[in-house]
Amino acid sequence: MEVKQLDDYFGYTEKGSSLDAELRAGLTTFLTMAYILIVNPSMLSNFGTTGIPFGDALFATAVAAFVGCIVMGLWANLPFALAPGMGLNAYFVFAVVLDMGVAWDVALAAVFVEGIIFLIISLPAVGWRTKMINSIPTDLKIATGAGIGMFLAIIGLREMGWIQNDGATLVNIAATETFTYDHGALISMVCLILTAVLMARGQKGAIIIGIAVASVWGWATNAYDPYNDFLAGGAGWAAVNATWPDLTAIEFVGLPEETLMAAIGALGDVGASTTVRTTTGTTEIAAADMPGMTTFGGFLMIMITFLFVDIFDTAGTLYSVGRQAGYVDENDELVNSDEAFMSDAAATIVGAVCGTSTTTTYIESVAGVEEGGKTGLVAVTVGVLMLTGLFFEELFTSIPTFAAALALVIIGAMMMRQAADIDWSDKEMALPAFLTMVLMPFTYSIADGIAWGVISYCAIKIGMQKWDELNPVMWTLFVLMTMFYLGPGETNTFDWLFDLVGLS
């Protein structure tokens, strides 16, 4: 497009901006969220423990961000950038795949289904998305975001080498007296504080700078990476010492070899049984008894969690950034909200098909707005820049674990700010909000935090004989989540029912 055509399409002059300002705002937003090209593939692959190759995850991250930003920019014409969301990627890896033992392709299938449902309920003709958002108590929505921040922080601090398992207290501080200039824990903490200082001074791309300084420091000193030292209580999933990347190996990462379309193929594995040959013949084994397989009940809970968090994370981000950018009307409604939400859903679907967890709108979009960005050209610029990550796999895979982990702590701190908006004086809300927040890091599960926040809130209202304050959405969530935790025998109600009809 020529400059005039760009202006006619996006209308940045009419909105008080310019081409230079829009491009600069796009670059600024990209710098503030480019860390996702490092952190998300590292988390999803988790050094080979999940089964998702790093290169596949990098491709999916870049493409999902590109698609989301392009659709948001060209269709909704809003300066909001999208990428695979922090928090849900941690839940995907640590809770669903590693803790629950769900196969990574089945987990991607849950993300794929969630994206389709999100798209459907966001259609203006359906209108369920708005009703659902408005039906959840505000304090529970706030607590969900704050809890995800705590969840990210505990993961980040462990990967930095600052907290470790303890038989007496569950977690404890690591042996800090051993930290030296070539110890990843010391390097990461120094660079974490450096990042915080840069952010306080208004430095654009502060997180990227912090990760870069920690990485170069680690490479130069062949630094010890405590998280990867199995003998010292670490995960033992990667190199114990940081090494320089091969900066000459700049090439296209290539199409995903394992993850592309895997989510669609895995839909048939949900609740599936298999026939196993034994010495006495053959026997049918149910999904519940097979590692890596998922029951219908388990899949439903995972999918609901992804959907719940995606909706409210996206809504909170869109409305907060929209207010700052002046894209809300007199009724506090976001301009082009349907297009914005459907852009998010479309990116999630594409991301799942390629091989990444849920895509969502990024709060870092505020950086571009503060830089003067007014239109969708900002988002388009971010999307194009995200594709550059497809050529730097060698560099990204060499980022030490302790360096990338500091981003999780910073983001966790940013997300915790919203906890101040919870009405802690409300005795009927204090416990549900608290459980929502603390159970996420303590159980390593976003789903458990959300579920028991909802269950406790509804139970308190029932105990107070305030049934009329529970709308149909909350009643439905209460019943569904209770069914997941309770059931006859050793199974939950979902799987019991599915077994009755022959689906488990």
Succession of helices and strands: HHHHEHHHHEEHHHEEHHEHHHHHHHH
**Overall radius of gyration:** 23 Å
| Continuous helix count | 21
Query: Rough shape?
Result: globular
Proportion of residues in helical segments: 55-70%
Question: Strand share of the residues?
Answer: under 5%
Q: Assembly type of the shown chains?
A: single chain
| Model regions low in confidence, pLDDT < 50 over at least 5 residues | 273-279, 281-292
Give the total of beta strands.
6
Number of domains: 1
Q: Report mean pLDDT, rounded to a whole number.
A: 83
Structural description of this entry:
It is a single chain. This protein is mainly alpha-helical. It has one domain. Helices cover 59% and strands 5% of the residues. The protein is built from 21 helices and six strands. It has a two-stranded antiparallel ribbon with strand order 1-6. A two-stranded antiparallel sheet has the order 2-3. Helix 6 crosses helix 12, helix 9 crosses helix 17 and helix 19 packs across helix 20. The longest helix is centred in the middle third of the chain and has 30 residues. The chain is globular and about 65 Å long. It starts with a helix and ends with a helix. About 4% of the residues have low confidence.
